[in-house]
Target: Inositol 2-dehydrogenase/D-chiro-inositol 3-dehydrogenase
Amino acid sequence: MKLRVGIVGLGDAWESRHRPALRALSDRFEIRAFCAEVAHKAEIAAKEFNASPLDGFRSLAAREDVDAVLMLAPAWYGPAPILAACDAGKAIYCSAALDIEPRHASRIKERVEASGVAFMAEFPRRHAPATLRLKELIATRLGRPQLLFCHERLRKEETGPNGTRRYQPFSSATRELMELADWCRYVVDQEPTSVMGVEHDTDGNDKDYQMLSLDFSPEDRPGRGPLAQISCGRYLPRSWRDAISFRAPSALQVVCERGAAFVDLPSQVIWFDEAGQHIESLESERPVGEQLLTQFHRAVTSLVRKISDLEDAYRALHVVLAAQTSCQEGRRVPLDF
Model:
């Protein structure tokens, strides 16, 4: 079954992830309409895919020839396209689920649940070939995760057209922490029970480093279960290009019961056990974008409704907000989902 879709927003990953994936999956997806903050970009994309460029996301969601809405950038309209899709009864694929402001999160979650539509949030780290292979190794060779380390160096915030800053309810560092927290939850395969946060602010105006320690221990025995240390920062000026990329750490380091693994996204895993070092390159695996959209197609065309990703996005937001509370109050904050 071919799914007829309308696309709202053409974000940073359009050229590298979404466009190639939709081309490769042309037997499963037919693009009928585009709507983007920059009308010219929508017109170019619409011409390439023989679709219609539209001025508004509401008219796109209301079209009878659109079965699902792919929200591929947060842009200036925030979560409004999600609500429009819910009103129209259209399934939703959302690459901006982690960009929903805290004050809107509960309402969006309730509206999606009440509408009865399928909802899939885009978590590219989860579905990277290296992550899927890591999960296999944990189940078969390495054993249960004990310690996880993630660190991401970020560039300074960029501006959009005409020098305006793109819509972002959170700083890029906060959003990155949300995605990394979700990634660690996915790898450990259980819920954290508490979090501690640390922040560094050089000039009093902008945080240049944030860190959180995510504890998966039983509530009555903190520090006895899996522990994830997650951090990111913009402490290097954009002009220091060589310094930003110098000796970048692995995207994820995992110490398990019977070995350790170093993950470099999207497709390399180097792991160690008693037999020594093992290097696996997974370049031949299907790209992340294709895997994500294939799952969405399956979710929409099957009889099993999928909305769990929305709950996962909501929990990632809850974790990072709790880490901010921890930093402000100087204490460990319990997590109650």
